[in-house]
Design a protein that fits this description.
Elements: H1 2-8, H2 12-32, H3 35-38, H4 43-52, H5 58-65, H6 69-79, H7 85-103, H8 107-139, H9 144-197
């Protein structure tokens, strides 16, 4: 492995650094974007039970604000429910926008790595071929070792860049899809709470219709 890194030239260093950063982002986001932690399935039922039993007090609201992202959204809505449906909805949307921003943290960096890594590989290819043609101009085609070294550098950096870019792109799309699913779940629960607080529907089973 070390020989391949040396053969790939100095551009292998940013490619390797990109792979390390991409791996760290993937592990961190995989742990943070756990649907059961971001939007617990039984939370809305629990909050509605507190409301029905008149147990929702300031302490319970503080507990919600310290809880999961969905809990913070519900807490924002509950705190402003007395001001009317529109104010309650606006407070939920404002809190949700901050939470979605947090869910998407580091994904721009991951997408950038997916885009830049193959370009680094391509740059290595160009530099390797320049080296080959320079040696041909200086020494002719007789020194096969030098020519092979330049071609090897070109191929190694290209392959390395693609090996970093492809998984990074796949995981970037995967995390975006997971965030979309989580956001839909939180939106459904928030709408149910708004409707229930203003007497339009009753919450019977907040987890009904959600996939396991």
């Amino acid at each position: 492995m070390l020989e391949l890194v040396k053969a790939g030239g100095w551009l292998m260093l940013p490619i390797i650094m990109s792979s390390i950063i991409a791996l760290a982002i993937c592990v961190e986001r995989f742990l943070k974007l756990n649907p059961d932690k971001v939007a617990p399935r039984g939370l809305l039922n629990q909050v509605w039970a507190w409301l029905q039993n008149k147990q929702l007090d300031a302490e319970k609201l503080r507990e919600l604000r310290r809880g999961s992202p969905l809990a913070r959204i519900l807490a924002a809505g509950l705190a402003n429910a007395k001001h009317g449906r529109e104010i309650m909805k606006e407070s939920i949307e404002d809190t949700a926008s901050h939470i979605i921003h947090d869910l998407e943290r580091y994904l721009n960096a991951l997408g950038t790595i997916a885009a830049v890594a193959p370009l680094l590989g391509l740059l290595g290819t160009v530099l390797g071929m320049i080296r080959v043609f320079t040696e041909i101009m200086v020494q002719g085609t007789g020194n096969a070792g030098v020519l092979a070294g330049g071609i090897s550098e070109a191929l190694i950096t290209t392959a390395s860049g693609l090996c970093v870019a492809i998984p990074a792109l796949v995981m970037h799309r995967y995390f975006l899809r997971r965030i979309d699913e989580i956001v839909v779940t939180m939106e459904q629960d928030a709408i149910k709470l708004i409707n229930a607080m203003h007497g339009e529907v009753q919450i019977k089973d907040a987890s009904a219709g959600k996939s396991s």
